[in-house]
Amino acid sequence: MTAEIEPGQWISVKVTAEPEAAAPIKTMVRLFERDQAMKAERKRLARSRPVRTHRRGGRPWADRAPRVRVVKTTPGAVYRIFASVDVLRELASLDRYVEITPA
Question: For residue 27, is it within any domain?
Fold first, then answer.
């Protein structure tokens, strides 16, 4: 991680290698979902997802489709996120897979 990155600024995170283990992938997805474009896309998909209602035990029951993953962890993907202290700490554990630059 570069020394010029400080908490409180926007950073650009580029995926350079895709991890094979599940833990770094989950960390990447959790961090990259903080990107404003990803938030907007998830919100759009949530509104367009159909909800099927039926009776179950005499009460209305809503069946919702599972959430669609919009974040990609393939090499070359670029995300712009706000660099808070917790984000920088988690990105330090992903330094083998990402490249961080100020946005």
Answer: yes
